[in-house]
Amino acid sequence: MRLGLIGLGRIGAFHARTLAALPAVDSLVVTDAVPAAIAATVEAVGAEAADSPEALLAAGVDGVVIAAATPAHTALIRAGLDAGIPVFCEKPLSADPAEAVQVAHLVRESGLAVQIGYPRRFDPAFAAARRAVECGELGWVHTVRSTTLDPAPAPREYLEVSGGIFRDCSVHDFDTVRWLTGREPVEVYAVGTAHGADFFAEIDDVATATTLVTFDDGATGIITNTRYHGRGYDVRAEIHGVADSVAAGWSDTTPLRNVDPDVSWPAGPAASFFMDRLASAFQAELGVFTEVVAGRRPSPCTVDDALAVTWMAEAATLSRREHRPVRIDEVRLDAPGAK
């Protein structure tokens, strides 16, 4: 098949290498707002160049991967829909929740497959944990934990426009706990601290956060995030049920120092970058998208999944600012009777 890739920044360049190596991809067409990025990618993976998204979508592609900056997501998804092809888009649908609702409505009306990028669903251990829940091996799940700990903050320029830790970091954990349990969140309570660089307080953000999520069956999700985890990049999950418990993300690269004198694990070296820690998940995710494009399976992560995560992020942001629990229905713009 012939695929298009829009956006060749850090994640886009990584996706270009992954897509070019997939057996299902015969040709890859790429574009970016920076001509040098296009040239570098063409040379690195042998892709074809397009000088604009419009030119790329007119180049006979069977599907398109959107890895451009968040402000461009909505317009590019619309363009993909107008071209009548399946779309893969990195999270989120939009930085504006109202706009996200609108584009989700357009996707449903189009009948086209749109897959949103949440790679942890494709990590082998996370997928095995999900199967354990689905098969009933754990019994009733009462607690799920999800962690994302970054080694260092992103540049201030990015964080000023990212929407805050709950919208740009915790969202991966929000999707994880909802997907692992198969349950819908009904309420969140979030706290955080701005310890670290002075600018976190200046932009009304926090550098470390914890979110409690209550699900519709009474289970509890516990999510921890930080911009300061000097030992490395840490992504893990635990699911505890009445019959059994499982964990995902524990390995010799887990950036945690065990001080038990009788235990030598983990052996290291610690993971230090999300693209290294989740490399196999990104590969599997885009491999699945080729199956979506071929019509062999539906989208595994839909616009409705993305909206559910949006409401969790909005509720957590409001909860942290107002120091109170926030029900999901307070922030949902697509709920019956919502304004």
From TrEMBL:
Pfam families registered for this protein in UniProt: GFO_IDH_MocA, GFO_IDH_MocA_C3
InterPro entries, alphabetized: Gfo/Idh/MocA-like_OxRdtase_N, GFO_IDH_MocA-like_dom, NAD(P)-bd_dom_sf
Annotated Gfo/Idh/MocA-like oxidoreductase N-terminal domain residues: 2-118
GFO/IDH/MocA-like oxidoreductase domain location: 126-242
Molecular function terms from GO: nucleotide binding; oxidoreductase activity
Entry keyword annotation includes Membrane: no
This protein's UniProt keywords: Oxidoreductase
Family per similarity comment: Belongs to the Gfo/Idh/MocA family.
Protein name, entry field: Dehydrogenase
Source organism of the structure: Nakamurella flava
